[in-house]
Amino acid sequence: MWIAGVDEAGRGPLAGPVVAAAVVLDPSHSIRYLDDSKKLTAKRREEVFEDIQRNSVAIGVGHASHLEIDEINILQATMLAMTRAIEDLGFEPDQVLCDGNRCPELNYPVKAIVKGDSKVASISAASIIAKVTRDRIMLNLHSKYPEYGFDRQKGYPTTTHRLALKKYGPMVEHRRSFGPVRDCLGE
Fold first, then answer.
1. What share of the chain is helix, strand, coil (3-state, %, to 5)?
2. Using CB atoms within 10 A as the burial measure, which of 26, 90, 130, 186 is most buried?
3. Torsion angle of alpha carbons 5, 20, 139, 67, nearest 10°?
4. CB 162 within 8 A of CB 44
């Protein structure tokens, strides 16, 4: 039975997309250090990311942009990104397991697993693929907008990010529906 694990990265940040990944692992290849991406160092995540890339049956990645997040809300944008990740697999899984307590509507049997990113290997793998992919997007944004410090906080609402928002105002990729950004716009 082929199981696709699905997870997302980037629900809480004030900028950038929410990214989801779907991963179907090959049971004949074990991947060391699979765990919830938040429990791994950035260096370890990169190493495991490469191992997942080499040793998985299928990997799909989906995004929902800052504009989509503002239009449909972060929960619906997360479900959209997850759906896009499954569609990007190019592979039909027998079952989809999603991290958390909600699942997108899919044409496959689907089940939500709370803390699945630390319980189910394929969800752990999806967690790592989503996190590394999103971090790379935020590093690219940092090269365009270094004043916000996306290389350090990846768009999360840290004190330094909030101070930069107040000083420079929001840039294009900020999520205008999120309170701290909306406050800077005076809305």
1. 50, 20, 35
2. 130
3. 180
4. no
